[in-house]
Amino acid sequence: MYKCCIFDLDGTLVNSIKAISYTTNLTLKKYGLGSIDEDQYKIFVGDGYKKLVERALIYCGDKTLIHYEDALVTYMEYFKVHYMYEVKAYDGIKDMLHYLKKNNIKIAVLSNKPHERTIDNVRGIFGIEYFDKIYGEKDDVKRKPDPEGAIITAKELGILTEHCLYIGDTDTDMKTGIGAGMDTIGVTWGFRNREELESYNPKYVIDNPNEIIDIINDHRSKIDNSICI
After folding, report:
1. CA-to-CA dists, residue 154 to 10, 104, 148, 157, 172, angstroms
2. Domains and CATH numbers, the chain
3. Mean of pLDDT values over 153-180
4. Which PANTHER family match (predicted)?
5. Residues pairing with 31 in the sheet
6. Is the Cβ–Cβ distance between 180 and 151 less than 8 Å?
């Protein structure tokens, strides 16, 4: 029976692409580079801000990453100010979270966004009542797609990994959940398409947050029926 849902943040719970693109384009502007459109950023995101800045610089012509170290500092300075810029929960997310909480499903966030900004984003959009654990990128935990963060999160919640769903919108998330031994859900409303998600063979690919509720209920029914038999 599924007892826990671990969610990616950007592109899964919240649409933050405007904040990401705005902050990164401000960073590029400092060096006379950019700007880059939002659709391109949907490809760049998923592996943490350091990789995002690297990809953006190379895309704009800084092939040898002359500005890289300074750009990381600049990005973080801008992001502290603009991390909530037009960030919104996707339709149906809050209702889905409310259902999970009401039905005693543990709920966590595991993001490659810097840890403090992850907490700020989650609390700024959802408040404090839903999530049992919130983790962003931290120096002492390997960044996704390494499954370490997902495994640690499950352990801290007292849930076996086989009783967890991992939910995300990118190849990074598919690798993370599968690597952690969790049934993994790819969501199509985020930053990548169905074809890319399916290529990594997650357990499920869904188009609407309500399908998470259906998956949990169907799984529970199958277990109950097997017990009865």
Report:
1. 20, 15, 10, 5, 18
2. 4-15+88-228 (3.40.50.1000), 17-82 (1.10.150)
3. 98
4. PHOSPHOGLYCOLATE PHOSPHATASE (PTHR43434:SF1)
5. none
6. yes
